[in-house]
């Protein structure tokens, strides 16, 4: 037998001798036996929590402190007229159920009966003429040109009267 083999065999036997034999968990077994002999204790009940009154955030409708303050010119503010008001007996058209901001002009068509604007919105492209209504504020088309559609809306002025507010829907290029 070579000296290297002899030394490796001795080291291996010494290592195996250290792995077995006596129970090295004696102190753990003694502690567990002591715990088993103790009488069972009581479990403390869970603490009761006091309920706090709910907080209602009441500043949701106020101006954000991070936005610029808007100054109102009360003297220069337009006042509505009692003569201008929406017609409650008029039958509403289909496009009056949608916000006017969602419409965009995509073109015009002209034929013998007149000129028509093509507006995209409300799930499709719609052909409208002067006098048709769209938008939720009684918006009536008053003029159609190759570059825009002019609409006049009737909106409340906040003081019980009504204002006519002009709006323009510009032609959307490259649509």
UniProtKB/TrEMBL annotation:
Record-given protein name: Pilus assembly protein PilP
InterPro entries found in the cross-reference section: PilP
Pfam families membership: PilP
Domain of life: Bacteria
Gene3D superfamilies with a match to the protein in the record: 2.30.30.830
């Amino acid at each position: 037998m070579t000296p290297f083999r002899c030394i490796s065999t001795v080291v291996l036997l010494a290592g195996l001798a250290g792995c077995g034999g006596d129970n090295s968990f004696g102190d753990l077994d003694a502690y567990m036996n002591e715990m088993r002999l103790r009488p069972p204790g009581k479990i403390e009940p869970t603490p009761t929590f006091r309920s706090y009154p709910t907080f209602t955030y009441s500043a949701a409708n106020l101006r954000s402190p991070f936005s610029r303050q808007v100054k109102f010119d009360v003297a220069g503010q337009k006042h509505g007229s009692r003569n201008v008001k929406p017609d409650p007996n008029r039958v509403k058209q289909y496009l009056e159920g949608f916000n006017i901001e969602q419409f965009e002009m995509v073109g015009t068509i002209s034929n013998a009966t007149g000129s028509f604007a093509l507006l995209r919105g409300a799930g499709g492209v719609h052909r409208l003429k002067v006098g048709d209504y769209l938008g939720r504020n009684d918006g009536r088309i008053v003029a159609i040109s190759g570059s825009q559609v002019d609409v006049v809306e009737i909106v409340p002025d906040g003081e019980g009267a009504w204002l006519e507010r002009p709006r323009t829907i510009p032609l959307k290029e490259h649509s």
